[in-house]
Specification:
The complex is a heterodimer of chains A (about 110) and B (about 110).
Chain A (H helix, E strand, L loop, with lengths): L4 E3 L2 E4 L5 E6 L6 E8 L3 E9 L2 E4 L8 E7 L2 E6 L8 E8 L7 E2 L3 E5 L1
Parallel strand pairs in A: 2-11
Antiparallel strand pairs in A: 1-3, 3-8, 4-5, 4-9, 5-6, 7-8, 9-10, 9-11
Chain B lengths: L2 E3 L4 E5 L4 E3 L2 E3 L5 E7 L5 E6 L10 E2 L10 E3 L8 E9 L4 E2 L5 E6 L1
Parallel strand pairs in B: 2-11
Antiparallel strand pairs in B: 1-4, 3-8, 5-6, 5-9, 7-8, 9-10, 9-11
The chains are: A mainly beta (about 110), B mainly beta (about 110).
Chain lengths: ~110, ~110
């Protein structure tokens, strides 16, 4: 298994545009997490899913952010409209079973200009 | 509210010196504690978890429930230990990993 795969690796977009980040978890993992990493705040948990169902989205900063998991092998994080303060590295992680180790993707570096 | 504190943003030591990366947590329940590491240009990965009570790459971490701390220690730092380290309590009942703001360890030759 290639591990958690995120795309794109880098994204530069203009303020106001829609941005979609993608994640493919490790096959068989039933938990999926989205994190945002910034210098000021470190790693923040945005949302996590269990068996494709969102369990806790209390970390999603505002309504401009939305996340979906239509099936066990794919999730998206969408920002619409994007703002410069959304610039960060976004990580996806997956884990097997309750309490399992979280495996991280390589992240998507988002720059909103 | 749940909180994780890593007081040092940057820690610089010389090769062969002892190193301690501090982590304090504030939790209402009984979390499980992890340390994750991110080497340059690599993914964030698990270093160790407190229930394993094991030493990984010479690192150990002891959970002190009285002080609510989970400091990461290594007696003799190596240059290859230079990385970003994150303390991560897991909220047991909800399988949520929280991460501290991270400590960048720089081991100088």
């Amino acid at each position: 298994d290639a591990g958690v795969i995120q795309s794109p690796r880098h994204e530069v977009t203009e303020m106001g545009q829609e941005v979609t980040l993608r994640c493919k978890p490790i096959s068989g993992h039933d938990y999926l997490f989205w994190y945002r990493q910034t210098m000021m705040r470190g790693l923040e948990l945005l949302i996590y899913f269990n068996n494709n169902v969102p369990i806790d989205d209390s970390g999603m900063p505002e309504d401009r952010f939305s996340a979906k998991m239509p099936n066990a092998s794919f999730s998206t994080l969408k920002i619409q409209p994007s703002e410069p303060r959304d610039s960060a590295v976004y990580f996806c992680a997956s884990s097997f079973n309750f309490g399992g180790e979280a495996f991280f993707g390589q992240g998507t570096r988002l720059t909103v200009v | 509210a749940q909180r994780v504190t890593q007081p040092e943003k940057l820690l610089s030591v010389f090769k062969g010196a002892p190193v301690e990366l501090k982590c304090n947590y504030s939790y209402s329940g009984s979390p499980e504690l992890f340390w994750y590491v991110q080497y340059s240009r690599q993914r964030l990965q698990l270093l160790l978890r407190h229930i394993s009570r094991e030493s990984i790459k010479g690192f150990t971490a002891d959970l002190n429930k009285g002080e609510t701390s989970f400091h990461l220690k290594k007696p003799f730092a190596q240059e290859e230990d230079s990385a970003m380290y994150y303390c991560a309590p897991r909220e047991y009942n909800f399988n949520k990993f929280y991460f501290g703001s991270g400590t960048k360890l720089n081991v100088k030759p």
